[in-house]
Amino acid sequence: KVLIDVPRSDLAEELAQSETKIQVLQDTLQQVLDRREEERQSRQLLELYLEALKTEDSILSKVAEPEAAPRKEMDVVDTGTSSTDTSATTALSDQVLAALKEKPAPELCLDSQDLELVLKEDAAALASALGWDKQKAGALQEACDQELSKRLKQVQTLHSLRSTCKGKKMFP
C-alpha cells in the first residue's frame, strides 16, 4: 500500500527505474490489493451463506418432516359449481394442502412457486379447502407473502453483491 501511495517520480528516482516501469509496478500492486480484498469479501459472503444454511437446516428439521411420497400436481377443472359449495377447488396440490394443514409454519416448508400459488388463491376457497375460517386462511397467506418477500430480497442482495464484485474487477 505504501509503494502505491508514493509519488511515481520519487519511487522511480529511488529505484533507478523509468516512470513507466514504476507505473506498471504500482498498477500490479494495486491489482494484488484489489484481488485480496475481493477474496476477503468472498470468504465473508461464503461464511454468511454457510451460516444461513445451517440456520435454515435447523429450522426446517424442527418444522418439516421428510416427505416420502413423490409430489403430485393436479389440474384444476372448472366444474361449474357455485362458490357456496363446501369443497372448493384450488390450484394447490394435495401435498401443499397437507403441508398447510399439518405444519406449524408451512411457509418455511414450501418452495417459492408454492408460496406464489398460495398467494394467488382466493382466501375463501383456501379456507374451504383447508377447513379453516377465512381469517386463519388470510393470516396464512400473509405469512406466505412475508416469506416470499424475504426470499426475493435475499436474491436481490446476492445479485447486487455479484454486480458490485464484477464492477470492482473492471477498475485498476
TrEMBL record:
<dbReference type="Pfam" id="PF09033">
    <property type="entry name" value="DFF-C"/>
</dbReference>
<feature type="coiled-coil region">
    <location>
        <begin position="8"/>
        <end position="42"/>
    </location>
</feature>
<feature type="region of interest" description="Disordered">
    <location>
        <begin position="64"/>
        <end position="88"/>
    </location>
</feature>
<feature type="domain" description="DNA fragmentation factor 45kDa middle">
    <location>
        <begin position="2"/>
        <end position="118"/>
    </location>
</feature>
<keyword id="KW-0175">Coiled coil</keyword>
<protein>
    <submittedName>
        <fullName>DFFA factor</fullName>
    </submittedName>
</protein>
<feature type="compositionally biased region" description="Basic and acidic residues">
    <location>
        <begin position="64"/>
        <end position="75"/>
    </location>
</feature>
<feature type="compositionally biased region" description="Low complexity">
    <location>
        <begin position="77"/>
        <end position="88"/>
    </location>
</feature>
<dbReference type="InterPro" id="IPR015121">
    <property type="entry name" value="DNA_fragmentation_mid_dom"/>
</dbReference>
<dbReference type="InterPro" id="IPR027296">
    <property type="entry name" value="DFF-C"/>
</dbReference>
